[in-house]
Amino acid sequence: xxxxVLDTSVIVKSIFKPLKSLSDEIYRREMETHKKCRFIIKxxxxxxxxxxxxxxxxxxTAAVVKKLANKSLAMKISKGVLDSYEAIDEVFLFDxxxxxxxxxxxxxxxxxxxxxxxxxNAVLLTDDGGMHIHAKEIGVDPVLIRxxxxxxxxxxxxx
Length: 159
Hints:
The protein is an alpha/beta fold. The protein has one domain (about 5-50, about 90-159): 3-Layer(aba) Sandwich (Rossmann fold), CATH 3.40.50. It contains 8 helices and 5 strands. The chain is globular, with a radius of gyration of 15 Å.
């Protein structure tokens, strides 16, 4: 894999462990997903893949981190995301995202991630089941992290 789009779910789940208040089954699944997301971030940076995010990912990351932690960490992490990945402006994605939203009914944020993967012909890495379904619906190559073994993810990344 030489190009990918990272969904906010992968970024956030790579940083934060799941809440221990979750049921045992969901906690185990989410802890495995956390480990996979950490592996993904580390590995795609090591193989020097082109990593894209829509600029809205920075906003979404800030909002989620603020909810999970605090304003200071939200600023630090969202700034780190901006500095670490190629953030594509909305103007380049709008028409495609709008079409995807109209055709699939997916959320506005999701349509931008899917549009970017489509435009860049990149693998979409996500742990959002709905985004995964909508991406497949329009012919984008998505990887739903929770449904993949780490060995499979490694094969996808390393080719």
